[in-house]
Amino acid sequence: MKHKVLEYLPFVGIVLAICTASWVAGRMPAEGRAFAAGLGRTAGPRRRTISR
Amino acid sequence: MVPKADFDSYYGRPVLNEPTWRAADIAGYLFLGGLAGASSTLAAAAELTGRPRLARAAKVGALGALGGSLYALIHDLGRPERFVNMLRVFKVTSPMSVGTWILTAYGPHAGAAAATGVTGLFPGLGRAATVGAGVVGPAVATYTAALICDTAVPVWHEAYREMPFLFAGSAAASAGGLGLLAAPLSEAGPARRAALAGAAVEVAAAARMERRLGPLAEPLKRSGLLRLGEALSLAGALAGATVGRRSRVAAMAAGAALLAGSACTRFGIFQAGMESANDPKHTVQPQRRRLARARAERDLT
Amino acid sequence: MAFDLDERLDEGRRVGFFTDTSICIGCKACEVACKEWNHVPDDGLNFTGWSYDNTVKLSADTWRHVAFVEQRKPLGHQEPGVGDLDFRWLMASDVCKHCTHAACLDVCPTGSLFRTEFGTVVVQEDVCNGCGYCVPACPFGVIGKRETSGTAAKCTMCYDRLGAGEEPACAKTCPTDSIQFGDLDELRERAERRLEQVRAAGAASARLYGHDPDDGVGGTGAFFLLLDEPEVYGLPPDPVVTTRDLPSMWRQAGVAAVALLAGLAATAWRRKR
């Protein structure tokens, strides 16, 4: 019985991983893409400036 | 020991050898392949109609489901290191061979679509890959019906007319479910409609299959997994189309129900096939009826 | 190709088995000879209680299987010298049928299964990746997946011995010539003559099984003279190669795929405002 449950773990894990990844992808800003726009917004000129 | 039946058998032993496929791998693949293929098509439709977040969620979901499919397929091989041997030949008589080549064509498109969608790099290439994956996707989702029907397993083989439609409906319902789960309400319209239409086709195809197969439909009718799958799919689709329009939480719950429903349907079909292969009556009786029919036709002419 | 059901193998060069079950004595010498010659691993010693059959079925590790059936029926004009006896003991040595239209061969995605120059069907163990598709494809329940190697295995009709001009080990060892090996067309003629003989002796239920080139698998390379319905011996009464319906399956799958494409496109028809 325990062995049988273990057999299904990879499948369940894969489905949960798909749902999570897809959910995260759906929450990213509409126009934004992680690199192109996402970085542009958070890393404005001020963040890029190295200040001492 | 063996109950007296209205047919002969060898000590009640099955005529066929039981498929060696493991449910978690192959039934799991039937689900994941459908999810991947239909999600790619949904992603292309969403992208071309200005729904970038639904498109991106579906592309990422498709790539994940493709990865899971490949894991399941290779894990089920007796010699996993030899999976490339399937690229030695192309055989139209073998749905597994055709499917291998469909996946080979589909994989790079789905991968490029997801990668460009998430990073925002190479938008032109991304658009082309998205459309390419969307066009090949339905083949990924439905060839699996030919895969299991092209066997001597009585329930699978005899159900070959409805199986592709059942799988197409189930795939659309699961892709719609993933869209409901992941996309914002403002963009989830296509996912809601895909879920509704998919669940309806899935249930209709299953009903037609059970009616047409007659006595052979017994393992399908007895299957709790199939009933549960239908209930989850219909409930998820209806909830998605009603409360799922206004509440994000309700939409997510509906999406989860649709995904679970599609998975239950695939595992139910798989299980019913295994049961029919293991019962000599399902092999012998339809063949006896076929012989009797042929004899009657001969006598008439 | 399985789609061409009018295809005939070159029958002149095709070899096969004719297993005449009316003279099988159930000694299982064929099972032993096959195991020894082909190095087929053991698959357990179990007691079934099914007459003398503890072998149970054909599988990756059983390439000959002798079936035993005890029936309350008289066997032809039987004169046992103990008065009326309504008992017969059927014995039959089952084997891979080496079908004309072989489903295992059709569905194999690696090309591991192939048709030899003798018209037989053989697995190349070094090519097989153990996908297991051939197992549910076989309408006779012959081929199996071997646990130890992870690859498919079944009767080769002793491919190595055929190449050296020898007959297969089971036929060679059969003490009553119940298993006969030879050119298929000659075996078919011999079987027709034998059937007449057995029927004349009062076994009205005798029939040939697998000899007809017009049956669902195009006739088998290994065919049988049976004394009862095929299912009594665990054989399917009307086997059909599954790929016969594959063109229809592809058509249905194609229509479903186009419908899925069109349906999903339609869900997004109205552009988002």
Automatic annotation (TrEMBL), chain C:
Keywords, comma-separated and alphabetical: 4Fe-4S, Iron, Iron-sulfur, Metal-binding, Repeat
Pfam families: Fer4_11 (PF13247), Fer4_4 (PF12800)
Entry annotated with the keyword 4Fe-4S: yes
Cofactor note: Binds 4 [4Fe-4S] clusters per subunit.
Positions bound to [4Fe-4S] cluster 2: 34, 155, 158, 170
CDD domains, alphabetized: FDH-O_like
Record: residues binding [4Fe-4S] cluster 4: 108, 128, 131, 134
Cofactors: [4Fe-4S] cluster
PANTHER family in the cross-refs: FORMATE DEHYDROGENASE, NITRATE-INDUCIBLE, IRON-SULFUR SUBUNIT
Protein name according to UniProt: 4Fe-4S ferredoxin
Organism listed in the record: [Actinomadura] parvosata subsp. kistnae
Lineage summary: Bacteria, Bacillati, Actinomycetota, Actinomycetes, Streptosporangiales
